[in-house]
Amino acid sequence: MLTDGGIETDLIFNRGVDLPEFAAFPLLDTDEGRAALRAYFIEYVDLAVRAQVPLLLETPTWRANADHATGLGYDTAALDRVNRAAVDFLAAIAQERTAELVSWQVGGITGPRGDGYLSAGGVDPAEAADYHLPQLSSFAAAGASRATVLTMTDVGEAVGFAQAAATAGLPAVIGFTVETDGRLPDGSTLAAAVDAVDAAAAPTYFLVNCAHPTHITAALDGGAWQQRVGGLRVNASTMSHAELDEMEVLDDGDPVQLAADQAPLLDAFPNIEVIGGCCGTDVRHVAAMWGVS
Which positions in this protein are listed as binding Zn(2+) (predicted)? Predict the structure, then answer.
């Protein structure tokens, strides 16, 4: 399935949209914001039609959880409303083009409780499950087909997310991020993280996001865990997370080269189901990944 690119960086750097707290979900609450989101997502609908491949539209709700949303004026009831609205919004966009699309789904996106670039320092799975359950329940109530957490840095939080998704009745996809050496921000290997989560609360599959393909390549060891990776959302830039944090201009790399750099990962991860982008990518990069000019 084809999914979108780096929504926050595209909106900020390419489209001039202000996103306080790096949060796109408040755009759903204004006419101007919904227009910006529609213009963004419709490009991927068009791409999926051109490529004639299944489409996975994923909600702009990476920051729509309690810790990040409180400062934006969203309480529990408002978060429930906006997370449900995000699913409905994308479903309506896809339904307009149902006759042209091979197939489509809408998935709910969430992010870590803390910073997606820094180690969470050890998270209690039960606490994480309680934290993520409200957002996942909102997705389920709105009819989302799955729940994906992106930029996860901690095994305990990933276990809790998988447990919460099971409680909400949603298939769970866990997206870990890695540094330039192929390891999670806390220094653990991707292999160890996948195996630990699988042993405690196996999700539907895993995904790797917010890292350049060459960073992910550093994690490869030929182990059985590679069979459990079903999605890729790579960064356009080869920079480290720390370097990207300091950037005031977008490093969008080269779309064709990014697709070439990602190609070996499609062999290393034979069960890939979802391909899209993360920071610095836009529809050009995703088109190159799918071989569409």
Answer: 210, 278-279
CA of 130: how far to CAs of 25, 66, 71, 154, 160, in Å?
21, 12, 20, 16, 8
Compute mean pLDDT per 10 residues along the chain, 293 residues long, and list them.
97 96 97 98 98 98 95 97 98 98 98 78 92 98 98 95 98 97 93 98 98 97 98 95 82 96 98 97 98 93
CA distance 20 to 32: 16
Contact 157, 201 (CB under 8 A): no
| pLDDT, position 119 | 72
pLDDT at 122: 83
Question: Residues at the annotated binding site for Zn(2+)?
Answer: 210, 278-279
pTM of the model: 0.96
Q: Binding site, residues?
A: 210, 278-279
Beta carbons of 178 and 220 less than 8 angstroms apart: no
From the list 176, 198, 189, the residue with the least C-alpha distance to 218 is 189
Domains for the chain: give ranges and CATH numbers. Answer: 7-289 (3.20.20.330)
Residue type, 98: T
Rounded to whole angstroms, how far apart are CA atoms 290 and 293? 9
Q: Positive or negative CA dihedral for 220, 188, 181, 230?
A: positive
- Let me know how long the chain is: 293
For 52, the token pair is: 């004639």
Give helix 155-168 / helix 190-201 axis angle, nearest 10°: 40
Tokens standing for residue 10: 């595209």
Whether residue 161 contacts residue 132, with contact meaning beta carbons closer than 8 Å, is answered with yes
Residues 6+ apart with CB under 8 A from 30: none
Cα 52 vs. chain centroid, distance in angstroms? 22
Residues 6+ apart with CB under 8 A from 4: 40, 41, 44, 57, 58, 276, 277, 283, 286
